[in-house]
Design a protein that fits this description.
CATH class of the largest domain: Alpha Beta
Radius of gyration: 45 Å
Low-confidence stretches: none
Structural class: alpha+beta
Bound molecules: adenosine-5'-[phenylalaninyl-phosphate]
CATH superfamily of the largest domain: Bira Bifunctional Protein, Domain 2
Number of domains: 2
Number of helices: 12
Strand content: 15-25%
Strand order of the largest sheet: 1-4-5-9-8-7-6
Length: about 375
């Protein structure tokens, strides 16, 4: 192509020669047809339709022609440019359709494939009840204490006045660790946390110790070999049974409301003297003691009551073993089964539901119980 032909020299406007226009048009149409992607078509558009393309340059030269030649040259160039523009638009439409079809295949989503989304979990009600119990005591100014699940036999038994030959040692069926003389057991109750705390802290002591405990019990409606207890211990000057009864009453009210029927009865624990047991009315027979098909209630064994926990004034021997002078300080303790508390609070019909790990069981309780 030449530059602007201001003196109308016909030699200089050779680019407007019909054959040259035709050749430029054919080149462009061939390149458009050969473009197999939108990117390639974009490059073709720049070289055959852009400002520096042969047809654009030819168009610019029309102004340099003598007036008599302008109209015909204008028509010729205009037709060629319109043909190229139409071919580009048509190819663009084709290539876009091809692209859309390809994307539909490549990014196909099978909405019938089963979802892999996981349903959200739920905290186990044992955990929720434990926290609520501990919170109730923390609210009254007590502290939370912890101890290990693998416990020294001495702390689990001896320090609690359960010597090696004490008959009460058999009351709690124990998982011993190999070798037998290792002196270690899976703790049978949370009471060793009492001893650990008294050995570490000076009175006054007000602690609550929730945790997992283990016994060689068979799984039935009211027993499981792995269960949870919450232990409460208060050591101070002048504590009496009245304080113990008041603490249990407060605990039961916070936990179960005013309606619940409980009773206390005399009992025996080597580490408390005197000792008592708190029972709640059986949720299955409502205290009648009778089963559905006549005979004894299978849940409470016919007594009409289910044991919630033990309690008592801390035995002087235990205080002394922990370096506390019983002439100066006295104390009370109680230990409750959390699974039993859950049964009482929510009418859970037996231990099986609590240990099976079915998420639907936990979900019923939501985030607060
Ligand atoms: C004790 O474990 C004493 N340490 C409690 C105690 C603490 C007494 C402080 C005095 C002072 P007991 O063996 O009774 O006591 O167990 C306490 C509670 O644990 C029972 O009342 C019951 O609610 C629960 N429990 C006992 N065995 C099981 C079991 N196998 N499954 C579920 N809960 C159980």
């Amino acid at each position: 192509m030449s530059g602007p032909n201001t003196d109308y020299d016909p030699v200089e406007v050779s680019a407007l020669d019909p054959a040259a226009i035709e050749a430029a048009s054919e080149d462009a149409l061939a390149a458009i047809a050969a473009a197999t992607s939108l990117d390639q078509l974009k490059a073709v558009r720049i070289s055959h339709q852009g400002e520096r393309s042969p047809l654009a340059l030819a168009n610019r030269e029309i102004g340099a022609l003598p007036p008599s030649a302008k109209a015909e040259a204008g028509k010729r160039v205009g037709r060629a440019r319109a043909g190229v523009a139409a071919a580009i638009a048509a190819r663009q439409t084709e290539l876009e359709a091809e692209r859309d079809e390809r994307i539909l295949v490549e990014e196909r989503v099978d909405v019938t494939v089963p979802a892999t989304r996981r349903t959200p979990g739920a905290r186990h009600p044992i955990e929720l009840v434990t926290q609520r119990l501990a919170d109730a005591f923390v609210g009254m100014g007590w502290e939370v204490a912890e101890g290990p699940e693998l416990e020294a036999e001495w702390l689990n038994f001896d320090a609690l006045n359960l010597g090696p030959d004490h008959p009460a040692r058999q009351m709690q069926d124990t998982f011993f660790l190999d070798p037998v003389d290792s002196g270690l057991v899976l703790r049978t109750h949370t009471s060793p946390v009492q001893v650990r705390t008294m050995l570490e802290q000076e009175p006054p002591i007000y602690i609550v110790a929730p945790g997992k405990v283990f016994r060689t019990d068979d799984l039935d409606a009211t027993h499981t070999p792995v269960f949870h207890q919450i232990e409460c211990l208060a050591i101070d000057k002048g504590l009496t049974m009245a304080h113990l009864r008041g603490a249990i009453d407060a605990f039961v009210r916070i936990m179960f409301g005013e309606e619940i029927r409980t009773r206390v009865r005399c009992s025996y624990f080597p580490f408390t003297e005197p000792s008592m047991e708190t029972d709640f009315v059986c949720f299955a027979c409502h205290g009648a003691g009778a089963g559905d098909a006549g005979g004894q209630c299978r849940v409470c064994g016919g007594s009409g009551w289910i044991e919630l926990g033990g309690s008592g004034m801390v035995n002087h021997k235990v205080l002394r073993a922990c370096g506390i002078d019983p002439d100066v300080h006295s104390g009370f303790a109680f230990g409750l089964g959390i699974e039993r508390a859950l049964m009482l609070r929510h009418g859970v019909q037996g231990m099986h539901e609590m240990v099976e790990g079915d998420i639907r069981f936990s979900q019923q309780f939501g985030m607060e119980v």
